[in-house]
């Protein structure tokens, strides 16, 4: 019989200029979450490096040999957990990516997600950010199977704005969508929670986001507020801007009940409209 409930932990850690310290901090928080019974643990976007186009090249690593992936693999194995390694700047074949790695309880690499939608926005007087000046986009959907428990879909931050990605993950059987992210002081209060609730309710899935803790002295000030939203669209666990761990029980029976009570999946009018998946 498969397990219908498991504990998810989101690590809202502070990220500074020292990669070594960031990795040590991540390992310490991972252990704490595992000791508290978390089965799946998620780090924030860009957890090993300050977030900003000026930092990515300097902090970037190759996945196979980089110290961040070695640390993540070891932490997953030591704590016997599934671990979503937030994201790190990755270098590969002369290009840079914003990349999330997923590790199994044996320390093996289960999945790699390269941010598909790069964060390029310009809100005059508020925030301008152009990831595409430095980064290349990934071109693949990424999900992984957590043993016989649950299929999980991965997006990174700006990816959450694209409803189609979430819809395709849900259609492919994902019951939890994880978005390591770092919204900011303009779009955070306006859209962070709303997007999570929208993705969760539309697709009747759990949605979780993991942000770095806020540092007012960083060049990019993160919103924080890592959260978990249920398939009912309700925020079931959240926090403020400070360093913390957010825990939530993911209850797949509850998800199933909601799906049978409000059966939108079967009521779609695919004779009238359709979202098409063009790649794997
Ligand atoms: O979509 C937003 O408002 C923020 C996105 C972001 O910070 C990111 O993709 O890293």
UniProtKB/TrEMBL annotation:
A Pfam family matched in the record: CN_hydrolase
First-tier enzyme category under EC: hydrolase
Swiss-Prot/TrEMBL keywords: Hydrolase
Keyword check for Cell wall biogenesis/degradation: no
GO biological process, one term: asparagine metabolic process
GO molecular function: omega-amidase activity
Cited Gene3D superfamilies: Carbon-nitrogen hydrolase (3.60.110.10)
Reaction(s) this enzyme catalyzes, per UniProt: 2-oxoglutaramate + H2O = 2-oxoglutarate + NH4(+); 2-oxosuccinamate + H2O = oxaloacetate + NH4(+)
Entry EC no(s): 3.5.1.3
Any coiled-coil regions, as ranges: none
Positions of the CN hydrolase domain: 6-252
GO cellular component: mitochondrion
Similarity-based family: Belongs to the carbon-nitrogen hydrolase superfamily. NIT1/NIT2 family.
Name the UniProt record assigns to this protein: omega-amidase
């Amino acid at each position: 019989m498969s397990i219908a409930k498991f504990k998810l932990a989101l690590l809202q850690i502070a990220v500074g200029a020292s990669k070594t310290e960031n990795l040590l901090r991540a390992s310490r928080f991972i252990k704490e979450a595992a000791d508290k019974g978390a089965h799946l643990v998620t780090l924030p976007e860009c957890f090993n490096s300050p977030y900003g186009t000026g930092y990515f090249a300097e902090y970037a690593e190759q996945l196979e040999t980089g110290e961040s992936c070695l640390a993540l693999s070891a932490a997953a194995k030591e704590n016997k957990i599934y671990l979503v390694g937030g994201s790190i700047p990755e270098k590969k074949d002369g290009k840079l990516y914003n990349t999330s790695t997923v590790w199994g309880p044996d320390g093996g690499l289960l999945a790699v997600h390269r941010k598909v939608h790069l964060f390029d926005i310009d809100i005059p007087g508020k925030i301008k950010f152009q990831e595409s000046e430095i980064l290349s986009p990934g071109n693949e959907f990424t999900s992984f199977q957590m043993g016989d428990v649950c299929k999980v879909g991965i997006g990174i931050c700006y990816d959450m704005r694209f409803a189609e990605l979430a819809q395709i993950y849900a259609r492919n059987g994902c019951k939890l969508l994880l978005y390591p992210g770092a919204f900011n002081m303009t779009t955070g209060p306006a859209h962070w929670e709303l997007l999570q609730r929208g993705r969760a309710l539309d697709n009747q899935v759990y949605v979780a986001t993991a942000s770095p803790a806020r540092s007012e002295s960083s060049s990019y000030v993160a919103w924080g507020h890592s959260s978990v939203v249920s398939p009912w669209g309700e925020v079931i666990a959240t926090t403020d801007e400070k360093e913390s761990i957010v825990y939530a029980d993911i209850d797949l029976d509850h998800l199933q009940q909601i799906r049978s009570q409000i059966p939108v999946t079967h009521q779609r009018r695919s004779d009238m409209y359709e979202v098409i998946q063009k790649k794997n």
